[in-house]
Amino acid sequence: MADKVIIGCKIPNGLILQVGEQCVNIKGANSSRLVFGYGVTSDVSLDFWEAWLAENKDRDLVKNGLIFANKDVKSTKDNLKDGQNNPSGLEPLDPDQPGEVTRADK
User: Fold this and answer.
1) pLDDT, tens only, 21-69
2) pTM here?
3) Beta bridge mates, 35
4) Residue 102 pLDDT greater than 90, yes or no
5) Which of 19, 60, 76, 88 is deepest in the core (most CB within 10 A)?
6) Residue ranges of E strands in the chain
7) Which residues are CB-contacts of 66 (< 8 A; sequence separation ≥ 6)?
8) Do residues 69 and 17 lie in contact, with contact meaning Cβ atoms separated by under 8 Å?
9) pLDDT for position 103
10) Cβ(8)–Cβ(39) under 8 Å?
11) In this predicted structure, what is the pLDDT of residue 100?
């Protein structure tokens, strides 16, 4: 049996990771299986993950911990908990907070 990893992803709609012709659908923060703000996808091939990571290691989503993988549940839970307060930059806007959004008149 091939080695598997558990992937955590904080991008709201998840991602489709592609290596060559192979694609894997990764659950995101809008998933029904949400842990500390991350979608969790189990049973992804370690070989696939390592190939995808080699091609994408310099992307901000990898560097900022918005997607990561571990081989065991304990390490995954630790990473999920550690990253729970890391903003993805894709959080919903709060209309009551000042910012660059102007509220429309009713």
Assistant:
1) 999 999 998 887 778 888 899 999 999 999 999 999 999 999 988 999 9
2) 0.78
3) 38
4) no
5) 76
6) 4-9, 15-19, 22-26, 34-35, 38-45, 67-70
7) 9, 10, 11, 60, 83, 86, 88
8) no
9) 66
10) yes
11) 67
Cα 97 from chain centroid (whole Å): 26
Which two three-digit tokens encode residue 85?
């307060």
Cβ count within 10 A of residue 35? 14
Radius of gyration of the chain (CA): 16
Q: What kind and span of H or E run contains 76?
A: helix 73-82
Q: How many other C-beta atoms are found inside a 10 Å radius of the C-beta of residue 50?
A: 14
In whole angstroms, give the CA distance from residue 64 to residue 80.
Answer: 13
Among residues of the chain, what percentage have pLDDT more than 90? 47
